[in-house]
Amino acid sequence: MKIGCPTEIKPQEFRVGMTPNAAQEAVARGHTVLIQAGAGVGAGFEDADYTAVGARIVETAQEVFAAADMIVKVKEPQAGERKMLREGQILFTYLHLAPDPDQTHDLLASGATCIAYETVTDRQGGLPLLAPMSEVAGRLAPQVGAWTLQKANGGRGVLMGGVPGVSPARVVVIGGGVVGTHAARIAAGMGADVTVLDRSLPRMRYLDDVFGGVFKTSYASAGNTIELARAADMIIGAVLVPGAAAPKLISKAQLSELKPGAALVDVAIDQGGCFETSKATTHQNPIYDVDGIMHYCVANMPGAVARTSTIALSNATMPFMLALADKGWKKACAEDPHLLAGLNVHAGKLTYAAVGDALGLDVTAPEDALKM
Ligand SMILES: NC(=O)C1=CN([C@@H]2O[C@H](COP(=O)(O)OP(=O)(O)OC[C@H]3O[C@@H](n4cnc5c(N)ncnc54)[C@H](O)[C@@H]3O)[C@@H](O)[C@H]2O)C=CC1
Ligand SMILES: CC(=O)C(=O)O
Ligand SMILES: [Mg+2]
Q1: CATH class of segment(s) 2-119+306-370
Q2: 15 in a labelled binding site
């Protein structure tokens, strides 16, 4: 198979879909790997690192899209990239379709087979291709939130760890999955007073077992959420209903109940965000103020630490990428229900129920797409 990896074009996105190590494994299995010139530079990989393992460098994204049977990327295809997709081509990348009707319509119109990293599952009920980026974003969230809390950035002027004689910042993390757990660990490590809210009692039992004494847990009822939010210096949004638009857990009206200058870090922004006033921002302009509350809503947080993130993502995507290349999408998905769970669009049909619900579109069962 011809596997193509274009340069990411989303603003301030420095990750790349394939590392030289991933390219090497694909080449060793007899596949042709086409890397756009300079695609890896932001993550610290030179073109020569790819050619050294047998990949070919091509100059333009147009050439990559025209030649490749499968496109391996990081972020959802931008409008210009969507125009280059074609029927029968495989797209393997993050998509986040539920909050994005324009992209969904373009992918349906392209006729391509689009497998979303964020909905591929594993045997433990986890999301193995989201997890590494959730680990990164979770660990970054208190760091960027601490910066947002600084006075010059519009924040409350509160130091995460406090100092002797002054209380630490209060941090509330909504959602205790991968993002939330990593965020809570780092915030606690910075010395903050941390509470994690979740709706899953088994998850909170697990967190209490493993992290009891490091941070607290609380049930995410609406009442508990606003009560803890009122006292918080920083609120980290980390909820996920897989594939679906994020539930809105703090309304615009409720902002007036929060502390002036509090920082809201909405990691769930790529699924539409869990605060009503969240709108996606970029690394160039990451924060904005609504009613005196500072919002940080960067939808590609891991791009800020592109090297760590690229290697972590490629480690996770590689076995699936190789299965798709070796077997073709149909056989690979038929043999692996967890990869089939990643199928969001095929030949003009939407195949992911939660996206259909979010956008009011008809859905074809992924098992039926296998028969098309
Ligand atoms: N902005 C960015 O750059 C990045 C964003 N993300 C996003 O972060 C979000 C969280 O991802 P993960 O932690 O991997 O998901 P996860 O599935 O590991 O955890 C989500 C948690 O939210 C909980 N939850 C669901 N509904 C809830 C509610 N109404 N109230 C409280 N808790 C609720 C679930 O029980 C679960 O424990 C996702 O939207 C993901 O796409 C992930 C990586 C990077
Ligand atoms: C998960 C995701 O969207 C990202 O890493 O950018
Ligand atoms: Mg994202």
Answers
A1: alpha beta
A2: yes
